[in-house]
Amino acid sequence: MSDIKLDDGWKALLAPEFSKSYMADLRAFLQAQRTAGKRIFPKGSDYFRALDLTPPEKVRVVILGQDPYHGEGQAHGLSFSVKPGVRIPPSLVNIYKELQGDLGIPPARHGFLEHWAKQGVLLLNSVLTVEMGMAAAHQGKGWEKFTDAVIRAVNDLPQPAVFILWGSYAQKKAAFVDTSKHLVIKSVHPSPLSAHNGFFGTKPFSRANDFLVSKGYAPIDWKLPDDPAISPT
């Protein structure tokens, strides 16, 4: 991963992680996978895409996912997001339904969430790579320690943020977040298996914006552009 670029702000905050033994082990694992001919998603230049699009000083909201999508052409480094032209995954369909119920925003016709990321929504997966067709294949290889460090870094930033934690996995991972400083919004996961048991009606988007405005920050524009190529810089 030495050839992968990372936003300078994150690089400064996370520099100690790159010298730890778990990261060397992770590099060796990924190299061995590539040598064995395994397809790894997302592509190497997108491993840290979430961090590059949302530098530390811009973080306003964190939406924590678990693993990248493992289908061809889906993952591009942002939790819950897929590339333009790719079918919208079921969990994201439900996220859009809740967005409509919460803020009246009609569901987007694509699943490309960079518009959110560029406004300060850190769309962070716990594990940043996966083998094609093998869900959770890279769990327990070191990424979790790295993304724990990312969450700790956000927790320690001077500005308050909103942590949207869908499902028990995300809630356990970010259990240490300082709730006296940050807003933590919890519910069940938007997966079709659980969304009707406590996801719909939780209004995470309006609650996040109300908190941000109360702290003097601009609200997030949750409406995705019709053309996924159009987003704020």
Automatic annotation (TrEMBL):
Compartment(s) of residence: Cytoplasm
Top-level taxon in the UniProt lineage: Bacteria
Entry GO CC: cytoplasm
Gene3D superfamilies: Uracil-DNA glycosylase-like domain
DNA damage found in the keyword field: yes
Catalytic activity: Hydrolyzes single-stranded DNA or mismatched double-stranded DNA and polynucleotides, releasing free uracil
Active-site residues (renumbered): D67 (proton acceptor)
EC number: 3.2.2.27
Class in the EC hierarchy, top level: hydrolase
InterPro entries named among the record's database cross-references: UDG_fam1 (IPR002043), Ura-DNA_Glyclase_AS (IPR018085), Uracil-DNA_glycosylase-like (IPR005122), Uracil-DNA_glycosylase-like_sf (IPR036895)
Keywords noted in UniProt: Cytoplasm, DNA damage, DNA repair, Hydrolase
Transferase found in the keyword field: no
Single GO molecular function: uracil DNA N-glycosylase activity
GO BP annotations, alphabetical order: base-excision repair, AP site formation via deaminated base removal
Residue ranges constituting the Uracil-DNA glycosylase-like domain according to the UniProt record: 52-212
Family designation: Belongs to the uracil-DNA glycosylase (UDG) superfamily. UNG family.
Task performed by this protein: Excises uracil residues from the DNA which can arise as a result of misincorporation of dUMP residues by DNA polymerase or due to deamination of cytosine.
Protein name in the entry: Uracil-DNA glycosylase
Naturally occurring in which organism (per UniProt): Asticcacaulis taihuensis
